[in-house]
Amino acid sequence: MSRPILISAGATRNPIDAIRYISAFSTGRTGVAVAEALAPSGPVTLLGSAEACLRATAQPNLETVEYRSTRDLMAKMLDFVRTHPDAIVVHAAAVGDYEVADAAGAKIPSNRDELVLRLTPTPKIVDHLKAAGPDIRLVSFKAASPETTDAQLHGLANKQRLRTGSDRVFANVLGRLSSRVLFLGEQARWHATRTDAMDDLIATLRGWQG
């Protein structure tokens, strides 16, 4: 029996008002590519931004579900994990770390000379997944700042692995997305290209998929 897989992809949109939002630069390509590679072998749910869901190719085992804000994404991920306690979860979405305190429900007028926003931290979704589903297999992603060295990237990824209970961490440095990617479990596997790292990730997930 193939284990169900949940893959988050794309970027959250945390509202400022009825039409404006704070987001991140993410197309969701990585999550979509993983979902499409695994769907032929069993059920995959792609929990994606609007852009990520549009990118996905329709196929029998691939379901797309759209999310919007960080809190919306968190609620949908936790609901899936509680419903599928044996799931494999790949958390590849670019999650907004901040939200606007008291976001306006209506459109803020555009004729203001200045608009000041107060931001507050959002929940760290990845920190709650294993608590909701202790038996899930979890792959989390880590994107480090451009000045990060290999040694520092390893340290950051390992800290995330231990804190979140991730079975694997897919880590890279912003601006070097095509080289020196770390796929970290109990042992570190470095890859010279992102393509090689993606192949390793997909092979690992297929092994878990059953």
Label this structure with key terms.
210 residues, alpha/beta, 8-stranded mixed beta sheet, two-stranded antiparallel ribbon, 6 helices, globular
Task: Write up this protein.
The protein is of the alpha/beta class. It has one domain (5-209): Rossmann fold (3-Layer(aba) Sandwich). Helix content is 32%, strand content 24%. The strands form three sheets. It has an eight-stranded mixed β-sheet with strand order 5-4-1-6-9-10-11-12, with helices on both faces. Strands 2-3 form a two-stranded antiparallel ribbon. α1 (29-38) crosses α6. The protein is globular and about 55 Å long. The relative contact order is 0.16. The model has no long low-confidence stretch (mean pLDDT 95).
CATH topology: Rossmann fold
The total strand number stands at 12
Mean pLDDT level? 95
Number of helices: 6
The CATH homologous superfamily corresponds to CoaB-like
Helix content: 25-40%
Measure the end-to-end span. Answer: 7 Å
Q: Report strand order across the widest sheet.
A: 5-4-1-6-9-10-11-12
Give a short summary of the structure.
The protein has 210 residues and is α/β, with parallel strands linked by helices. The protein has six helices and twelve strands.
Describe how the helices and strands are arranged.
Blueprint: E1 5-9, E2 14-15, E3 21-22, H1 29-38, E4 44-48, H2 50-55, E5 62-66, H3 70-83, E6 88-91, E7 98-100, E8 119-121, H4 126-132, E9 137-144, H5 150-164, E10 168-173, E11 181-184, E12 188-191, H6 194-209
Parallel strand pairs: 1-4, 1-6, 4-5, 6-9, 9-10
Antiparallel strand pairs: 2-3, 7-8, 10-11, 11-12
Helix pairs in contact: 1-6
